[in-house]
Amino acid sequence: QVQLVESGEGLVQAGGSLRLSCAASGRTFSNYVMGWFRQAPGKEREFVAAIRWSDGITYYADSVKGRITISRDNAKNTVYLQMNSLKPEDTAVYYCAADASRLLFTTYTEYDYWGQGTQVTVSS
């Protein structure tokens, strides 16, 4: 069974940094795309970033470009989301997701597996 476990939950002040981790297990992910999404209260789940495990190609939402970096550690089967210059509007539950299609989808319905989510709160 595929398992995605997020960690790195935190409360930070605006302008601060936080790193989220997503530990993946249950199968070989070399042909997968890993994505990060977020969902704020009362809002739809929105795409943040994605990375293709095989070649490290990445894609970002315009709202986070230049502030957030997605990366992977093949040896640890872990994907990271480094978030800098955080803003109050970044406050949300952040979810890790996996998709077997090798395409860098930005729509959450395209992803097959999901983690339980981790809370990020940015105070002003």
Short description:
With 124 residues, the chain is mainly β. It has no helices and eleven strands. The relative contact order is 0.32.
Characterization of this structure:
- It is a single chain.
- This protein is mostly beta strands.
- 0% of the residues lie in helices and 50% in strands.
- It is built from no helices and eleven strands.
- The protein has strands at residues 3-7, 10-13, 18-25, 33-39, 46-52, 58-60, 68-73, 78-83, 92-99, 113-114, 118-123.
- Write the H/E string, N to C: EEEEEEEEEEE
Task: Give Rg in angstroms.
Answer: 13 Å
Global shape: globular
Helix fraction bin: under 10%
Please give a handful of descriptors for the protein shown.
single chain, 0% helix, 50% strand, 124 residues, mainly beta, 7-stranded mixed sheet, 4-stranded antiparallel sheet
Topology, please?
Layout: E1 3-7, E2 10-13, E3 18-25, E4 33-39, E5 46-52, E6 58-60, E7 68-73, E8 78-83, E9 92-99, E10 113-114, E11 118-123
Parallel strand pairs: 2-11
Antiparallel strand pairs: 1-3, 3-8, 4-5, 4-9, 5-6, 7-8, 9-10, 9-11
